[in-house]
Design brief:
heterodimer; A: 384 residues; alpha+beta; Heat Shock Protein 90; 2 domains; 5-stranded mixed beta sheet; two-stranded antiparallel ribbon; B: 235 residues; alpha/beta; Rossmann fold; OB fold (Dihydrolipoamide Acetyltransferase, E2P); 5-stranded parallel beta sheet; 5-stranded antiparallel beta sheet; 7 helices; 15 strands; 29% helix
Amino acid sequence: MTMPIAAPEPFPQSPPIPEPAVPGTASQSGQATTSSRDYWLCQCSGWAILSVISVMSTGQDALGPMWRMTVVKLLVMGSGLLLSHGWRLFLRRRGWIDRSDPPVPRILLGLIALSVVQVSVLVGTDVLIRDGALIADSDATTIVIALCVLWYAVFLMWTLMYAVVLSRRRARCFELEKLELEVSVKDAELRALQAQVNPHFFFNSMNSIRALIYQDPDTAAQAVGQLAGLMRHSLRAGQAPTVRLADEVAAVNAYLAIERHRFDERLQAEVEIAPGLDAVPIPPMALQTLVENAVKHGVEPAIGACRVRVSAVRDGGRVLLTVANQGHLKQASASTRLGLANTAKRLALLFGAGAGCTLREADGWVVAQVVLPQEGIQEAACAR
Amino acid sequence: MRALIVDDERLARKELRRLLGAHPALEIVGEAANPIEARAAIGALAPDLVFLDVQMPGGSGFDLLASLDATPAVIFTTAFDQYALRAFDVSALDYLLKPIEPARLAHALRKFDARLQPVPAAQAPAADGKVFIKDGERCWFVALEQIMLFESEGNYTRVYFEANRPLLLRTLNQLEARLDPERFLRVSRRQIVNLDFVTGIAPGPGSGMVLTLKGDVKVPMSRRRAAEFRQLNGL
């Protein structure tokens, strides 16, 4: 006996079907369109390959004329495509395939129904086109049962591949989510660090203020206000991606005022902000951190006076923030380099490739400079 | 009791002065704003007690102590130098966190008083018999009688005590002048031994001797020193 409507001998690449994006992932619409296109591509190519193999496998001794046989096979493949698509809709509606523990017995039962329907279609078409040449055979029952088994295998394979593609996609999404989570944790850590007031500074300031309370109550009261303002600003740094330059400069001025109580004439600070820059967005604490470093590495180790200059100017479209202190650049430690690299990275993320942060020594001054490119400033301002 | 305040911040010095006003027994004999001034003041005023800021321009309080021949009693004051304090065996010395709590200050002064009591007032504070050692990041404040062995290494001297072997920036000769000859014996050009730690004496090569110290450390004694030693002990 021959296999009239042959299923593939070497089992063909059944259509592996991609699934629309799992809800909640990035760029949903785009991904959904892509995956839907991928699905139809796989479906069509899979069934086409199956058709070709099936038609080619028609033996010379096939029953009836060749073309009728071919038509029957193609129609059957078409119905296979439709049935598998319907099966996919069914699986998704029931949610049988989207979960980690699919109800396997029910799916296997469903596959039996699917193969019975498919074989019925097959027999029906055969009756219509070839006058039932298939079931005219003496052992028609055996043939029908064999066909059912065969198609059961085909749909089972289809379902397995579909499940594999789905689970792979899910794993990818999971990876992506994990990565996003990691990035957000890192970001939170960085913000927490920024919000931290340098404890050395804090306790020394408290000590100065306590001395001032007895010596000069008015100045002490002023210093408490300045410290409160600075704390508030640094707490805010943990919340917003950028702040107005004017707000940051206010914090820097408060900081310098407090440090002046501590260092007296040893700290000689000048702050010069060009007009019209108040609304420029900058990463919170970016300028303040540079000023703190200038005091730490310039003023603290100096026995005599040390000048610190803070400036913001427009240079063409760019904005340059500069903090300079008298002194020499020590062999930059690993942590300093890391700090600089981190700041540069943050700036690049917020303001684009033109942004950066440099540290250099020139003529007895250590100069830290932040460059904010024009386009980046506009974008960051919009993002706020 | 005479005290010196060393801090680079004027307000911090002022605040400590105010707090010390509650302790009339303590006389503040001077102030210094950096280690250079402090060195000079300690030399000139010979205070009983130094309040010493850890972080200062021109070197830390530890550096200052390590550079002194005679170490006065010290109470460290610091705002937040957790690393500096961790490097240091704080049990040996007292430290106060700024802003200083009056109660903590009183406690530290009581401890200082108690330590000072048995020593006659005329005696110099250096007779406290302690040496401050700073080797790299680590610091120790060791009683001399706890030191087992001094070993010369050029301009430095390696100091053996407990399991520690730090280097001290002093020549062996400088140290010998400070040490109690009753307890410490120069056994060779390179070594000074604490006799309390000697567990055995054996004849060595030539007419020298070999001393065994606690922990089975062997120290050879030169012929000349051995002869002196025999004579001294009537051997």
